[in-house]
């Protein structure tokens, strides 16, 4: 019997709390400067430069910022898909066409999220993306990502695999969130690259 799941979970929770606490210590200027650098790095990637559809997300709080990147993609004529959280923690998708296409949504007692205000395209819409930006709190030297713990993006990755879709998987992080190793489970799937304010690291 495998012990990978439950044994790893307390380690993941402890690590996640530590990374989120460090983010909460950042100033608004820190967050803004990092977001500008992240947008410039991401837009320079060949995968992003050649993408027709990018599945992304709207950063909240001290998360590595995405709004500048989303607007730059739209200005290039890229179709940008954003997630909408479903009651079972799965993700539906809608199109982002600018700040006025967002709605602030509170899910239970959790933080408010910015979600697409328009038509819902269904959970499978992500399988048509050329690039998928995944949120996370850390990534390790194998390209394995430590997420926020809700499991939503595990479902996204499983859906991509089931559909035979092979988009570029990118995660946006602060420099200090690229670490030697994070706890992993057998179903964890590596990302292709991590983008930080100071550079890009590829894993495959």
Which helices and strands, and how do they pair?
Blueprint: H1 4-24, H2 28-43, H3 46-49, E1 53-55, H4 67-75, E2 79-85, E3 91-96, E4 102-106, E5 112-116, E6 131-134, E7 138-140, E8 145-146, H5 152-163, E9 168-172, E10 178-179, E11 193-196, E12 199-202
Percent helix: 25-40%
Mean pLDDT: 91
Poorly predicted runs: 1-8
Q: What distance lies between the first and last C-alpha atoms, to the nearest angstrom? A: 31 Å
> How large, in whole angstroms, is the Cα Rg?
16 Å
Counting DSSP H or I runs of 4 or more residues, the number of helices is 5
Order of helices and strands: HHHEHEEEEEEEHEEEE
The multimeric state of the shown protein is: single chain
Q: How many DSSP-defined strands?
A: 12
Strand content: 15-25%
The biggest beta sheet is recorded as: 7 strands, mixed
Family: Belongs to the 5-formyltetrahydrofolate cyclo-ligase family.
Protein name: 5-formyltetrahydrofolate cyclo-ligase
Keywords: ATP-binding, Ligase, Magnesium, Metal-binding, Nucleotide-binding
EC number: 6.3.3.2
Quick tags:
alpha/beta; 5 helices; three-stranded mixed beta sheet; 204 residues; seven-stranded mixed beta sheet; magnesium; nucleotide-binding
Report on the structure:
The protein contains five helices and twelve strands. Helix content is 30%, strand content 25%. Strands 3-2-1-6-9-11-12 form a seven-stranded mixed sheet. Its cofactor is Mg(2+). GO terms for molecular function: 5-formyltetrahydrofolate cyclo-ligase activity. This is 5-formyltetrahydrofolate cyclo-ligase. It comes from Streptomyces violaceorubidus.
């Amino acid at each position: 019997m495998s012990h990978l799941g439950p044994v790893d979970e307390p380690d993941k929770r402890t690590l996640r709390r530590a990374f989120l606490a460090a983010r909460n210590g950042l100033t608004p200027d820190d967050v803004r400067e990092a977001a500008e650098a992240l947008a410039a790095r991401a837009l320079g990637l060949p995968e992003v430069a050649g993408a027709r559809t990018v599945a992304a997300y709207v950063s909240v709080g001290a998360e590595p910022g995405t709004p500048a990147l989303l607007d730059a993609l739209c200005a290039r004529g890229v179709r940008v898909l954003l997630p909408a959280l479903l009651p079972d923690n799965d993700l539906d998708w809608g199109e982002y066409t600018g700040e006025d296409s967002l709605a602030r949504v509170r899910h239970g007692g959790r933080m408010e999220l910015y979600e697409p205000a328009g038509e819902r395209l269904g959970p499978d819409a992500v399988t048509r993306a050329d690039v998928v930006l995944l949120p996370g709190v850390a990534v390790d030297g194998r390209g394995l990502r430590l997420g926020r713990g809700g499991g939503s993006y595990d479902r996204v990755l499983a859906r991509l695999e089931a559909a035979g879709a092979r988009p570029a998987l990118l995660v946006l992080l602060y420099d200090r969130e690229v670490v030697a190793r994070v706890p992993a489970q057998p179903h964890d799937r590596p990302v292709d690259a991590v983008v930080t304010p100071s550079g890009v690291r590829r894993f495959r």
